[in-house]
TrEMBL record:
It comes from Stentor coeruleus. This is Sulfhydryl oxidase. It comes from the Eukaryota. It is an enzyme of class 1 (oxidoreductase). One of its GO terms (molecular function) is flavin-dependent sulfhydryl oxidase activity. It catalyses: 2 R'C(R)SH + O2 = R'C(R)S-S(R)CR' + H2O2. Transmembrane segments: none annotated. GO terms for cellular component: mitochondrion. The lineage of its organism: Eukaryota, Sar, Alveolata, Ciliophora, Postciliodesmatophora. Residues 26-128 form the ERV/ALR sulfhydryl oxidase domain.
């Protein structure tokens, strides 16, 4: 479905129901691409090395920049790119990049009037790495 914008809002997009009963927009909406995008960024950060090589840090830095420039919601990607310029990724270890990614996400959450997430490694690991509750439930209503 083409709404004439880079990526359409969820309200304009028909839903497909997949196994398990989840409704997923088809094609993906701005909101679902956002969810998938954050899922990828947080999950990569959750598996970042504790002691990365310079090559690893460089690759991650390039990935974040490429992500912001190729994200299909162009206004979101442009905004993210500006945020990265002001607060470049912290790449020294897993905790730094996990917390940095969380803080970036919280800036967007605040702009969209969504609740902010607790940016501790413990909360982030529960949500994005360990797969135990509250991974499948909620943390502070998120
Ligand atoms: C880089 C990027 C920039 C974006 N910019 C915009 C924009 O400018 N305008 C716009 O309308 N939309 C933007 N979006 C989309 C927006 O952020 C949401 O993804 C979208 O509105 C769907 O929101 P959601 O409520 O499903 O949860 P999402 O915000 O997508 O979050 C998904 C899940 O992540 C967890 N979570 C929430 N906050 C955090 C956090 N701080 N740290 C770790 N985990 C967390 C929660 O469990 C939540 O359910 C952007 C997305 C990305 C990836």
């Amino acid at each position: 479905m083409d709404c004439g914008e880079d990526i359409c809002e969820e309200a304009h997009i028909p839903k497909t129901i997949y196994k398990g009963g989840n409704e997923i927009p088809c094609p993906p909406s701005k909101q679902s691409i956002g969810r998938f995008g954050w899922g990828l960024l947080h999950t990569i950060a959750a598996h970042y090395p504790d002691d990365p090589s310079d090559d690893w840090k460089d690759k991650h830095q390039r990935f974040i920049h490429a992500f912001s420039r190729t994200f299909p919601c162009k206004s979101c990607g442009y905004h993210f790119h500006q945020m990265i310029k002001e607060k470049p990724p912290k790449l020294e270890n897993r905790e730094q990049i996990s917390v940095w990614t969380c803080e970036m996400h919280n800036e967007i959450n605040a702009m969209l009037n969504k609740p902010v997430f607790p940016c501790t490694l413990e909360s982030l690991d529960l949500r994005w790495r360990k797969g135990k509750p509250p991974c499948t439930a909620t943390i502070n209503n998120l």
